[in-house]
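Sample intake sheet
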Amino acid sequence: MFSKSQLAKMAGKCRITQETFDEAVRENIVEFDMEAEEALKSAIAEFEDQNVDLSNIIKSVSGGNTSGHPAAECLATVKTASGAEFVQACHHLVLLLEDPEGEASNILLQRGAVGALLSVLEAGGGAADAEGASAGLRVLKALFGTRSHQTACLEATGPPILQAIVARPESTLGVKALGLEAATALARKHEAGKVALLVAGMASAALPVLESVGRATGEDEEEGLAACCSLLSALTCADDDTLPSSSAFANARSLGKGALPVLVRTLSLREGVPTSPSTLVALCSAIKQLSANEELCGVAAEHGALGILLRHFSAASKAGEESVMRAACAALRQLCSSDSCKAAFLDQDDVIPRLASALKRYNTRPLITEQVLGLMTNLTLRNPAASLALVGERGCLDAVLRALTAAAMERTADPRAASAMRQGCMAIRNMAVRCEEAKTELLALHAQDVLYSIRDSSAPGALQDAASAALRDLGMLDYLPKAR
């Protein structure tokens, strides 16, 4: 079932032409004797009340007459210039597109900027050298933040052009990275963009870039590595909420067997190599995204992902790199949703002490505790051996309860703490229901008191349900929420 808001997004909004909008403004001026600005505001309000999508409309008194606008002038230069003049015009376009209140995006849409830039990039022209190609790709990347420009790219058969730029042997690593970043922007929240890029072979063009980086350091190397990972994640993420279904899962299945070994190997090579947190996050996130089913989780595990991710998690924990901790733990959490990976994960060196240590050190950081507790939830599901391992680590269950208590205290200041609390409740439930030793230890630690507090202080919903279920599985007879 879909919510009303989801159905509304899928239904879409009707659009009008620039001429229709300009005529409405003129009518307000002539028929109703409005001042120009008042007429413009009235026309905007009228069309928005009718649920008309005005994202493609230039909303100014001058209307579609934009020949003197800086964006129009820069685009004209881009079409004909070369060298430094071309680069400067592209740079100016990027700056104009950064202004959310400006009309540059719509002016460029109406003047066919995407098609023009793709033609220049394909033919060389002003983008014949690396600096020019980079400048043009930066403009495309900025334009693809708007759905209308994404669609314009598909209409101009842009994906094969982007693929050719990335696959071209003479393209520098910096140009390849920008080509991948533009492709990523095209794929985000645009299902047709994902499909077109896959058909064009963009994912296949990305993997050699990933393999070429290895342990190399440098700005271009890191940008290339992160761009490859971001593209793979975008192609396999179901984020287009204008459609009822997505090919993202099928994309992950088709790409995973080839991409996961490369991603895991690359992450392994980055151990001990100076690497920015954002790049490590991109690698971990891509591994998580592509490990979409039991088989693919197994592929990642076969190539050593469990140990590599755990080591990155521990190193980030010691260094205080919370973003890397979250990303590595999220990937481990995904892999441990596979029953075949759970035993292998428990066989890693000091795995339970590392998780317990992270819970103790970061118990006031709900974004981290959610991932660690979520990992424990997946690990203990249908797996009494994992529950026994948690019981066997002195202080581990106490750390779980302390993290729950801390999240409850943080809930008012940080609503995201509720997700951490829910994962903690589910972990307790999994441990108690299949492992008598865990149940006994939890009761000795008065876990029921923490759960009662969460249940009674939570509104009806997923968190209250999770706390009630955990109380029931601990053997509490009065596990149901009290009537309010």
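Comment: The longest strand covers residues 14-15. The chain has 28 helices and two strands.
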